Amino acid sequence: MTGYFEGIAPLAHDPGAEGLAFRHYDPDEIVLGRRMEDHLRFAVCYWHSFGWEGGDPFGGATFERPWFPNDDMGRAKLKAEAAFELFRILGVPYFTFHDHDVRPEGARLAESHARLDEMADLFEAKMAAGGPKLLWGTANLFSNRRYMAGAATNPDPDVFAYCASVVRHCMGVTHRLGGENYVLWGGREGYETLLNTDLARETEQMGRFLSLVVEHKHRIGFKGAILVEPKPQEPTKHQYDHDVATVYGLLKRFGLEGEVKVNIEQGHAILAGHSFEHEIALAGALGIFGSVDMNRNDPQSGWDTDQFPNNVADVALAYYEILRLGGFTSGGTNFDAKLRRQSLDAEDLVAAHVGAMDVCARGLKAAAALLEGGALEEARAARYAGWARGDARAMLAPGATLAQIADRAEAEDLDPQPVSGRQERLENLVNRYV
């Protein structure tokens, strides 16, 4: 015990509580036949919760925590103790990490690997003693200056090889700890200017690296999903993994659409010009939906501010699409979110997660009620009912020709009239639930 969260007891579902408690999140509440905890599969992220020091582009660290700076193994172990204290207080079933979050980088590659193994020993003991499971692990291939021109897409082949070693080792640790997924977080897989960039070469390298990761997954017997996190313009001007559609195109090109899925972040979806629910629905339609990072952006900032979610309507629409897909399998709800720079206290970190978990619980219940009510699905089915006709199905069947379809339209003197999409009525319907 570090004493960092001293005086904060494990939290319970208590709608009438005055202090810290869950008003809406009850892990054992049954929603659509499943426990709420099993629907939401909450995970606390190690990096923002314990690695971020409160800096921004105009100022340095504001958080003074006993495990800062992240420069020796003693502090790394103290950080781990504090992390597992928070996991216990919140009662979350999962956590997530980057390798660099949990241990300081060593002077040499072998030392970095040994340090991660040492932290994995500690994690393994904590998990065996009742700690949460690992939703996913990932490697930090973006912070060190060696990655300034990318990781797998770097013009230097030695960086590509270095990344292979880092990912192999982090995948091995994720596998050892029973991780249910492994994420490839391409923070610098993009470019700043075409003047010094070979697009064809870099995308070929990225696809090859993904293929190598998939091959290694099967070689070591890792049963979890491989996930790619779409990232627009962050931090490079052009990212090769801009959004779900872009990632799918890359996967399809290299024959990986049956092997790799996506981890979708709300903030990244917005920066790509989409809604969160759009990206989830598209991933589902393409068969590559995996997991989500739950956060939000400040609508005035135009940047990925990684704030904890607090809008029930937005969250409900996201969970509606997830429920339509049958819910999570190996994925879950990871809070890739951080405190504001002025939220300095240990209790602030607890309160942020409590509020976010309650918002997600409310959103899930609203989404479940909306889905169970069936009105949206009935409206959707009615809108496409014409495609159930035999002549309509025939147009999409193999062997149909453009000429045949055109001949029918002319022979029947077709004059189709527009039908209302009733968007406002459907929006009003949603608002009755949230």
UniProtKB/TrEMBL annotation:
InterPro entries, alphabetized: Xyl_isomerase-like_sf (IPR036237), Xylose_isom_bac (IPR013452), Xylose_isomerase (IPR001998)
GO CC annotation: cytoplasm
Active site: H98, D101
Entry keyword set: Carbohydrate metabolism, Cytoplasm, Isomerase, Magnesium, Metal-binding, Plasmid, Xylose metabolism
Gene3D superfamilies associated with the record: Divalent-metal-dependent TIM barrel enzymes
EC number(s) stated in the UniProt entry for this protein: 5.3.1.5
Compartmental location: Cytoplasm
Chief location: cytoplasm
Subunit structure: Homotetramer.
Protein name: Xylose isomerase
